[in-house]
Known about the structure:
The chain is mainly α. The chain has eleven helices and three strands; from the N terminus they run ααααααααααβββα. It is 59% helix and 10% strand.
Amino acid sequence: xxxxxxxxxxxxxxxxxxxxxxxxxxxxxxxxxxxxxxxxxxxxxxxxxxxxxxxxxxxxxxxxxxxxxxxxxxxxxxxxxxxxxxxxxxxxxxxxxxxxxxxxxxxxxxxxxxxxxxxxxxxxxxxxxxxxxxxxxxxxxxxxxxxxxxxxxxxxxxxxxxxxxxxxxxxxxxxxxxxxxxxxxxxxxxxxxxxxxxxxxxxxxxxxxxxxxxxxxxxxxxxxxxxxxxxxxxxxxxxxxxxxx
Length: 245
């Protein structure tokens, strides 16, 4: 999916790529020009001398939409949580670490248009670029399909993380922390492998193994794959030295 920025324009090929992205997320979108703008980084538009044709304005809008959706969801879903607990949860969810982790899970980076400089500097994996792009994408969904659809998308992505954090009483994003640590130290990304599923469909437990390269590091269990991966990442981080949690 990764291509040089010069290969991209809103051609039939680009539309097919955007359609693939939407299909993977089960999202309908009417305005493909708007979607393309949401996934256009400023480094790309600057190279084309079209500085206004990037996702910065949509990022500005999406940031506010995302905050409102998360705030509304937390307020209505957790009536027994204090203002302090809700604020802490919201801060975690809309943080750069959390947003970039979500962006990686939906493979957003593969569809972002980047300039040659950012492309050569691994821009598709940069937290700031990924976080900004997902905010712009939320803004684009809001403009294209309305607040209800944007809410459906955001809650669908983040609800599992919110519930997991409240259940554990811990708002650290261990997957993002581990990703950053391993990439910095070993220049590769950790990987997660589903080992087995235990129990009936209505009460299933997922068992996940975590690897760095070919080396097994830890495992984790949870009621979902995401929860199991988060627990495996937590175990791995706490076993590693020279990491400030």
